[in-house]
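Residues determine shape. Take a concrete instance:
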Amino acid sequence: MTPPKNGTTGPPAVEGRSKRIWPRDDGTCVVELIPSLRSYTFDRDELVPATARLRLDFYEHAARALHAAGMRTVFRERLGETTYLADSCRPRLSRSSSKTGP
């Protein structure tokens, strides 16, 4: 697997069923969507060509609409057909946060 350009090198720090994530030194990360599709009804995962692009098309549109409504998302900009730049991919816990939740 070749990492996307845009300041990333080596294998992804995180790879799941739907995306690969490469952190960058500036606190952002490059996210590459995998052409995966999940069926909860039939409890299966499949790789389906073109779904990564379609999912990113939807996410980009939704993130921009949320931003216009004053809601923050991690989406910064689309970098390619299936990649985008996201804010801080490293979770930051505040002093008042709890791992166990409320």
